[in-house]
């Protein structure tokens, strides 16, 4: 009896020892897997603060998978998913910060953008000069007229045909005759210095001959348009120069590069301002010619 009891105790001890060995083997294997993951993250230069969750949550407590409950499995997956999301978010934040603080902006592209913005001022000036009558019929004078067509502001040239049968007359022929009154009202409200005449089919605009005094008055208005365009262009130049100086102050470019791009900005400004002067000179010439 005693012998049987001792054999039973010995058998139980062997089984418990085997169970302990199996648990140790499983934990050592999990530890090796964790070590490999840590080394991989270190080689990718991931911050220790990001690796910490994996150390504590990447492993599920227990001797083997059969000892893990579904709840623990789900929790581990969720934590690992959150960890990888935080790594990706940190990567994006770091790169954004590097772009904002550590990398020099593309100043060549900045100069091109500066010229593009300045040329928008040229386009605006062209539109303004088209509205100035030179004493001769010019359909372009109606380009900026907007008609309230069924509640929607619509360019007059989209709603009507415009022709100049002679040097002193402009005829506006709406495609939709029901909009004749709206077109007439829009022309009157545009303050073009012309009085529309509606005969029920078309609208006629008589362009009066300009007196010498009227020509001088219009020439002053043209110069004002030119000065406004130059102010807008110089404001754009100032913004770009300030941007270059700030880039130099942040140690992203050298002093020589800063001087170079400021000079390039001035060259673009001088070129565009010269175009403005040429446009104003042509318009003044048209006004002074009888």
TrEMBL record:
| Protein name as catalogued | Ribosome recycling factor domain-containing protein
Question: Out of the domains of life, which is the source?
Answer: Eukaryota
Write down the species: Lotharella oceanica
NCBIfam families cross-referenced by the UniProt entry: frr
Q: Does the keyword Cytoplasm apply?
A: yes
Record CDD domains: RRF
Q: Which Gene Ontology terms describe the biological processes this protein takes part in?
A: translation
One Pfam family in the UniProt entry: RRF
Ranges for domain Ribosome recycling factor come to 125-287
Q: What are the protein's UniProt keywords? A: Cytoplasm, Protein biosynthesis
Subcellular location(s) of the protein: Cytoplasm
- Which is one GO molecular function term here? ribosomal large subunit binding
Its cellular-component GO annotations read:
cytoplasm
Q: Which family does it belong to?
A: Belongs to the RRF family.
């Amino acid at each position: 009896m005693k012998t049987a009891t001792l054999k039973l105790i010995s058998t139980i001890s062997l089984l418990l020892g085997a169970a302990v060995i199996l648990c140790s083997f499983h934990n050592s294997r999990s530890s090796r897997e964790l070590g490999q993951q840590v080394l991989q993250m270190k080689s990718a230069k991931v911050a220790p603060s990001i690796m910490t969750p994996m150390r504590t949550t990447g492993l599920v407590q227990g001797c083997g998978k059969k000892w893990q409950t579904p709840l623990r499995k789900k929790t581990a997956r969720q934590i690992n998913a959150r960890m990888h999301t935080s790594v990706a978010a940190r990567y994006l934040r770091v790169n954004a910060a590097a772009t904002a603080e550590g990398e020099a902006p593309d100043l060549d592209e900045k100069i091109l953008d500066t010229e593009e913005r300045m040329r928008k001022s040229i386009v605006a000036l062209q539109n303004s000069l088209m509205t100035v009558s030179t004493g001769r019929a010019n359909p372009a004078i109606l380009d900026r007229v907007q008609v309230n067509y069924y509640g929607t502001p619509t360019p007059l040239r989209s709603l009507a045909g415009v022709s100049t049968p002679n040097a002193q007359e402009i005829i506006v022929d709406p495609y939709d005759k029901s909009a004749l009154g709206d077109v007439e009202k829009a022309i009157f409200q545009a303050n073009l210095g012309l009085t529309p005449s509606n005969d029920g089919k078309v609208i006629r605009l008589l362009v009066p001959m300009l007196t010498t005094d009227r020509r001088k008055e219009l020439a002053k208005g043209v110069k004002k348009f030119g000065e406004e365009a130059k102010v807008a262009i110089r404001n754009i130049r100032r913004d770009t120069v300030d941007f270059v100086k700030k880039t130099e102050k942040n140690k992203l470019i050298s002093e020589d590069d800063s001087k170079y791009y400021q000079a390039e900005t001035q060259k673009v400004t001088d070129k565009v301002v010269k175009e403005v002067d040429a446009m104003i000179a042509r318009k003044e010439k048209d006004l002074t010619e009888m």
